[in-house]
Structures are given as C-alpha cells and as structure tokens.
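Let's practice the habit of predicting before peeking. Look at the sequence and jot down your guess about where helices and strands might fall. Then scroll down.
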Amino acid sequence: MIHLKFLGHIRTSMGSEEMDVPQESISVGDLFGLLLSSRPAQLDHGFTKYNTLLVINEEEVFSASAQQDRRISDGDSVLLVPFSHGG
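Done guessing? Here is the structure:
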C-alpha cells in the first residue's frame, strides 16, 4: 500500500487530507491519472502534475511532471505539495 498526504489546494481538490493507494507499485504518471479521475469534480482547484512537488519518504523531492515514469512502491509515503504552498 502507498500512503498519500495532500497539502494546500491539492487537499481541497481531493476532498481529503490523506489517501491510501492499494498497489504494490505505480508510476507518477499513472498515480496522477488515478488521482485526477477520482477527485470530486466540484472540487477542482487547479490540481495537476505540472504544479505539484512530490516528497517521497520525507527525503526525495521532485516535480511530478519531470519524473512521470518514476515508480512509487509499496510502503512509500508520498506528500503532494503545490508549488504555491506558501511559507
């Protein structure tokens, strides 16, 4: 299982603060396809892979659009942070 946590407008767009993905492995591109298809349509606040940073296991940080083929694995914890998250 892969644990996701959402911040800022991503949390608003997803309608929740956290989510578990019951897969052993998923690419960043496929993860965004899954997330964007499962979010409530009325909560669309501009969440895309082009304005999101991923933090994997509190140590690896990268732009979601730059590493769409990167695999996320069972047991990983993923924080999704909008570029405009504030400070």
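How did you do? Residues 2-82 form a domain with the Ubiquitin-like (UB roll) fold (CATH 3.10.20.30).
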